[in-house]
Amino acid sequence: MIYSLCFVALFMIGLYSILAQRDLIKMVIGLNLVEGAVFFWTITMVREAGGVPIVDLAFPELPMVDPIPQALTLTAIVISASTTALLLTIIVELNRMARTIEIDSLKGLRE
User: Could you say which of 1, 27, 38, 45 is the most buried, measured as most Cβ atoms within 10 Å of its Cβ?
Assistant: First the structure.
């Protein structure tokens, strides 16, 4: 139950940061919070079954956790880091070109 509340709190803080902030850096931080909340939820929901993700041949009666969600979460963490790096690179280039990272100030870049 506490894990679900932590997930909802992290997710809502990240979603608020994405939707309410006008600063691009804060929006990227919000995106990272949302991604982290989803990773946290995935691991904790799998972990509720109990047991270890490795099969111990000496004790086959122990419950085993499915290792696939953990592997997929690890892959998603790598993709998240790459996405964050790309977004921050784009923000740095926008800052060089427009001298601002505020969304309201970037509206006239098409001209």
Answer: 27
